[in-house]
Design a protein that fits this description.
Blueprint (H helix, E strand, L loop, with lengths): L1 H4 L2 H14 L7 H16 L5 E6 L15 E2 L18 E10 L1 H5 L6 E8 L10 E7 L13 H12 L7 E5 L5 H10 L2 E5 L3 H7 L9 E7 H14 L2 E7 L2 H4 L8 H10 L8 E3 H4 L5 E7 L10 E3 L2 E10 L4 E10 L10
Parallel strand pairs: 1-3, 6-7, 6-8
Antiparallel strand pairs: 1-2, 3-4, 4-11, 5-8, 5-9, 9-10, 11-13, 12-13, 13-14
Length: about 350
C-alpha cells in the first residue's frame, strides 16, 4: 500500500490545503472547509484504489462529500472492472479532516492543516462523532505514562523519561472551560501550558518530534481526530491513548448528542460494547500498514502554511509510514497555468 498510493496521498492533502488557504483570514470557516473537502475528494477519486471513508465530514451531518461510508477512488466507478484487476486491487479505509482547524483558517491563525490517515480495510477505528480524552507523549515515555494517572503523575514520569525538569516541560491543552482544573494542576506541578483554540492533531504529533518544544497533549478533544492522531503516533512510535467521552456534562461546550443515554445507545449501535475502554494507538489504528499525511494550511509547529506567489504556490507536507518507517517532509512548488516565476522562499 505504501508503494502504490504513498506518494499520491501527498497531492490529496496538498490540493485540500491550497483550496482552503485561499480563504485564510476571510472569516468564512464553512467555506474554507467546503472547498477543502471538494479538492480532497476530487484528487482522491483519481487514485487507483477502492477506498471507504470511515471518518469523514460528520457522522450525524448529511454531508454531500466525504461522508462516512462513501466510497472513493477510481476502482469504485461503475466500469471499474474494465481497468481495475481485482487481484491487484487496493482496498483501504480512510479517515479525513480536510480542514483541521476551520476557525484557525477563517481568522488567519496558526496551526491549521489538511490531514488524512489510511490503512487496509478494517485497520482504523470508525470513531463516533463524540469526544475523546487524550494523552500524547514522546516515545521515551510510551507505556510509562497512563491516561488514568493524574497530570501530576504523568508529568513526573515524562520528566524522568526525558531526563529534564518538570519546569522545562510544555503541555498543550485546548482552551476550554472543561479544562480549568487540568490547567491549574499542570501549572501547580511546575510545567508550562500552551493553550490552543483548535487543532489538536498537530499538537499530538508534535510530541513525537524532538525540537518542537511540545512534550505532552492532555485533555478532551474530538474523537475522530483522535484516531487520525493515533495513526501518526503509532507510525512514529510515540505514546497515544484515548478514552471516549459521551456525557455532555463532562464536555460542557460543543455538541455531543441529546443525552448521555442517547450517546451510549449510539455507541452500542456502532459496535462499541465498552464505552469506557481506554484505547492505545495500536487499538485506534490497528492495521498492518498505516499511512498518515498532512499539509499545512496556515503556519504551524511542524509545517509551513501555503504560500502563494504569482501563478503558483508552495506547500509543505508530512507523510508518515509504518511500513517504510519514515517521516517525510515534502516541499512542493505548484505552478498554475503559464507560471513565469518560481518563488524559492
Amino acid at each position: 500500500m505504501d508503494n502504490v498510493i504513498g506518494l499520491e496521498i501527498i497531492e490529496v492533502v496538498e490540493q485540500a490545503a491550497i483550496a482552503s488557504a485561499r480563504w485564510m483570514g476571510k472569516g468564512e470557516k464553512n467555506t474554507a472547509d467546503e472547498v477543502a473537502v471538494e479538492a480532497m475528494r476530487e484528487r482522491m477519486n483519481k487514485i487507483h484504489m477502492r477506498g471507504r471513508i470511515v471518518i469523514g465530514e460528520g457522522e450525524r451531518d448529511e454531508a454531500p462529500m466525504l461522508y462516512i461510508g462513501e466510497e472513493v477512488g477510481i476502482c469504485t466507478q461503475a466500469d471499474a472492472k474494465n481497468f481495475c484487476n481485482p487481484e491487484e486491487l487496493v482496498e483501504i479505509d480512510i479517515a479525513v479532516d480536510p480542514c483541521e482547524g476551520t476557525n484557525l483558517v477563517a481568522y488567519g491563525q496558526n496551526g491549521s492543516m489538511a490531514v488524512l490517515a489510511i490503512s487496509e480495510k478494517g485497520g482504523l477505528l470508525a470513531a463516533p462523532d463524540v469526544y475523546m480524552k487524550k494523552l500524547a507523549a514522546p516515545a521515551v515515555a510510551k507505556n510509562h505514562v497512563d491516561i488514568n494517572k493524574s497530570a501530576t503523575e504523568n508529568l513526573k514520569i515524562i520528566s524522568d523519561c526525558m531526563e529534564r525538569a518538570v519546569e522545562e516541560l510544555v503541555v498543550v491543552v485546548m482552551d476550554r472551560p472543561r479544562h480549568k482544573d487540568l490547567i491549574n494542576e499542570i501549572r501547580q506541578a511546575g510545567a508550562r501550558v500552551r493553550l490552543i483554540s483548535d487543532g489538536d492533531v498537530s499538537a499530538a504529533i508534535s510530541c513525537a518530534f524532538a525540537g518542537t518544544n511540545i512534550h505532552a497533549l492532555m485533555g478532551i478533544g474530538a474523537a475522530p481526530e483522535g484516531v487520525i492522531s493515533a495513526a501518526a503516533m503509532r507510525a512514529l512510535g510515540g505514546h497515544f491513548q484515548g478514552q471516549l467521552i459521551y456525557d455532555p456534562a463532562v464536555v460542557k461546550t460543543g455538541l455531543i448528542g441529546e443525552s448521555k443515554e442517547d450517546n451510549m445507545a449510539r455507541l452500542k449501535e456502532m459496535g462499541i460494547e465498552d464505552p469506557d475502554k481506554v484505547y492505545n494507538a495500536e487499538d485506534l489504528a490497528s492495521g498492518e500498514t498505516v499511512l498518515f499525511a498532512a499539509c499545512g494550511i496556515t503556519p504551524g509547529t511542524l509545517m509551513q502554511g501555503v504560500r502563494f506567489f504569482p501563478h503558483g504556490a508552495r506547500t509543505q507536507s508530512l507523510v508518515i509510514s509504518s511500513q517504510s518507517k519514515t517521516a517525510r517532509f515534502v516541499d512542493t512548488v505548484h505552478m498554475f497555468g503559464d507560471s513565469k516565476t518560481i518563488q524559492l522562499r
